[in-house]
Give the backbone structure.
Amino acid sequence: MPLPVFARNPREHAVFSALHMAVVGAGSLGSALIDILARTGVGSLTLIDPEDFAEENIGRHVLTGDSVGKPKVEELRRHVLGINPECHVTAIQARFDVSLLAKTNLIVSTADSFQAASLVNGYALRENVPAVFGGVWGEASVAEIVYVVPRKTPCYECYGAFRRNVVIPPDARRYTDPSFDDTRIPGQAGLWANILIAAGLGFQAILGLMGIRDTLRHPGNVWLMNISDPHCPFQPLALTVGEVKKGCAVCDPMSLEELLSQNLASCPDISQFDPRGEMREDEGEKGLVG
């Protein structure tokens, strides 16, 4: 018999209680989605994040001051069990790596790192697991949700590959910390209320992927919502759906072959290269001589 906490969402609980979901990234948006999943009655959760909870996180997180200085994932595990003691929660305090995770029914990435999102995308494609990627722009003024159904929709790299070239403010730790992630976006200002709107939007994509609601009827798999940006061209507080061309070097082998052929066609023939050779100037150009 379901717990009384699920008396008002028995249909969703009946589906979610049999599911195993993973959430990569336990920051603002990740914590809100974890809270929603717990209150919907998900059966198993795997939480992955390397960080401890900091005082500056309190204003934009489901956790409170009691959790400061403790691992986010362990404290969120305690939070989930306080809502649904029947949920099986695995907390992993580490950066995401595919070796950390068995096959799930769905994976969610809310990490503020393109590297992490790219790894999650690769996991989803390889394991044929649907994925939802959530984030916000600027001061949490625009919500961005991308959902991926392997072999059916464009993958995350089809849409987000441009982020490889985004200029991120320099951080001195990149020179001293060998594990530093230079694709991670530093924390920005933004209201908790805006995060909750973004989390609610992401959860609608999850409901659609699990077949509970008809939320995926739009042709595109990129959802954008202008929450509070007066300069954004999107209609305020309305869903803007973006269509992305399917077929990047990550999810489409044909695209990879085409990319390789284009690049290799312009390369010199190195089949005769002798590594014992020396470099010298030859008619104003540098070349390899055996």
Observations:
- The first strand starts at residue 20 and ends at 24.
- Confidence is low (pLDDT under 50) at residues 278-290.
- The domain at 4-289 is CATH 3.40.50.720 (Rossmann fold).
- The helical segments are 10-16, 28-40, 72-83, 114-127, 156-160, 192-209, 253-265.
